[in-house]
Amino acid sequence: MAVTSSFSRRFFVKPFPFFSFNFSFSTASSAPPPIRVALTDSVGRAVFATRPIAAADLIHTASPAVCHPYSARAACYYCLAALPHSQPLRAPFCSQHCHQRSKGYYDVEMKANWVAFDDYCGTRGLKYPFLVKRLACMVISGDARSDTLDILQPTNFTPEMVSEMEEEFVLLRNAFMETLIGDDHIAFLTKQWYINVLARIRINAFRIELAVGLYEDLLSLAVASVEAEAAVGNAVYILPSFYNHDCGEVVTKK
Ligand SMILES: [Zn+2]
């Protein structure tokens, strides 16, 4: 039996800390999660139940491989939690913990001038290149491998789509090249790498919305947050990407 839910949207409860480079199988109990990943005849890999799972049961928790907030002024750089209104503009973290956990790749990002890249993507409404930028920073800082997302299914880009990505790739690479970061640290950052990563992010990224409250209230909170367009950013998860899901929004719980 494939794992499905009676809800049209999927819920993943984020553990704290939110971010790690390996998905977590942690559950409320010490028992292993009741799932396995296997091939299907028609839709590639999928997650299967190893025992009956009731509606609204927590199957497992997962941390994203990479994430990025829509706005550095509104959401934490590391965990996408809402920032306090009194937060200084130059401190995009909800806590010292989040600052410390992301310090390596945040410092890499701060070494470069992102005006041209951010303007190009921002004016075109492009969100996924920011996830590639984040992953590139993580690779440079040693917090992630360049092949972190390779296990995920990629989308197929047409040659026209690939050529349209030339500009954003050049702007990303130039931003790093104009810093004191050594060439050997950005050797991985080829156009092929950029396209390969973006092809995986494109069909595996989840829109992240924040919800607060009791787990039992998540469905009503999800409905409320969707109506309020409460999305705070995007994230790519490894195991949840194997779920045969409807690409609906993810609600995370702080
Ligand atoms: Zn945070």
UniProtKB/TrEMBL annotation:
Query: What species is this protein from?
Result: Phaseolus vulgaris
InterPro entries linked: H3K4_H4K5_MeTrfase (IPR050869), SET_dom_sf (IPR046341)
Give a Gene Ontology cellular component term annotated to this protein.
Answer: nucleus
| UniProt protein name | SET domain-containing protein
